[in-house]
Predict the structure.
Amino acid sequence: MFIWAVWKNDFIFHGGRIRGKLARVIGIIGLIGMTAGTYLLVSIFIFKTTPPFAPFAGLLFGLTLVMVLVMRFLSIFMWHQK
């Protein structure tokens, strides 16, 4: 979903479809956040070490979670426009 948004400028989710530069920005934030979350997961739970830049990676992952929650909340209003 995020890769498609970066590649095609078309973000499709359960609330509808977003096109253009906003879709690309959403895709980039999602990809970076998911990568940061994977980095933290592997470093902390598998290797049992505190990785360098852990607070920054946590911030990026948190930004992705906030973005996903906002998209979920806004999809309620987008659904009523159909």
User: Anything to note?
Assistant: The chain has a mean pLDDT of 88. Helices lie at 2-8, 21-46, 54-80. The chain has one domain: 2-80.
